[in-house]
Amino acid sequence: MEENIYISVRFETTNKTYTFSTQDDSIKNGDSVIVETQRGVEYASVVSDPFDKPNISMEIKPIIRKANDRDKKQFERNKNDAIEAKKICQEESDNLELNMNVISAEYTLDRAKITFTYLADDRVDFRELLKVLASIFHCRIDLRQVGTRDKAKMVSGIGVCGRQLCCSRFIGDFDRISINMAKNQLLALNIQKLSGQCGNLMCCLRFEDDVYKELRKDLPKLNSQVEYEGERFRITSMNVIAQNCKLENADHAIFISLDDLVAKGKYNKPQKKENKGEGSVAE
User: Fold this and answer.
1) CATH of the domain at 224
2) Quick one: average pLDDT of 115-139?
3) What b/e readout covers 179-196, taking b as 16+ CB neighbours within 10 angstroms?
4) Which of 115, 146, 177 represents a domain boundary (last residue)?
5) How far is CA 67 from CA 74, 106, 134, 159, in A?
6) CB count in 10 Å sphere of residue 99
7) Contact (CB, 8 A) for 113 and 107
8) pLDDT-based confidence at 89, cuts 50/70/90?
9) Model pTM score
10) How far is 46 from 270, CA to CA, in rounded Å?
11) CA-based torsion, 232, 237, 241, 244: positive or negative
12) Helix or strand run (H / E) with residue 257
């Protein structure tokens, strides 16, 4: 009996990778394959070399087979037809006066089901819409409501940094983002400037947060009082990336490095938290 090998695949509409098994050792990184998911039969791309069985409890489904030319043509046809299907769904939604913004449509490879993704402020009673769409497309209809962050991920765009949005370029799952992350990075608390195209706080605040926490762990807080070379100052600005800060008092202002501040400045240094054991709750 041949042993299973394990590979990662990715679908065109998502950045996440999924693990599947196969006994076909000819499948390699870059190939296209046909797999079955909860949504149905789908077309996917192999994005890894074979690896050992991962230590996960979930069932790992097998790859059905390598994709052939007919599969590739069907996949392209489905993408083109989905554009028209999206327009039809939006038109029928408007006819029924449903407050829905249809973002995308996606066929399974065998066209047994089509999934419409939409944005709405509230819950939508789409029972009548389901009947209309089923009579038009003659297949299973799935209507999936998403949030504004999901929409930005699907539609994509250019961020304020001039690069493609992180959510559509490489982020697989959305993490919780809080305004405290902006405070940790010493940013002005201007919600409009801190928000991305989705209207929520920018994702980069989350994955840059750990670096800023590490850089600031032994430093005083902004606006702290500090004694430096015999004078009393207030820390009015700090740049942990450039490793400098600005000290001001009633007479003058000076710029010094953070190394000098730590070595020569006198202030109340941050207290290190004691490890209270496994039973403690992290703040």
Assistant:
1) 2.30.30
2) 92
3) eebbebbeeeeeeeebeb
4) 146
5) 11, 18, 28, 35
6) 12
7) yes
8) very high
9) 0.68
10) 49
11) negative
12) strand 253-257
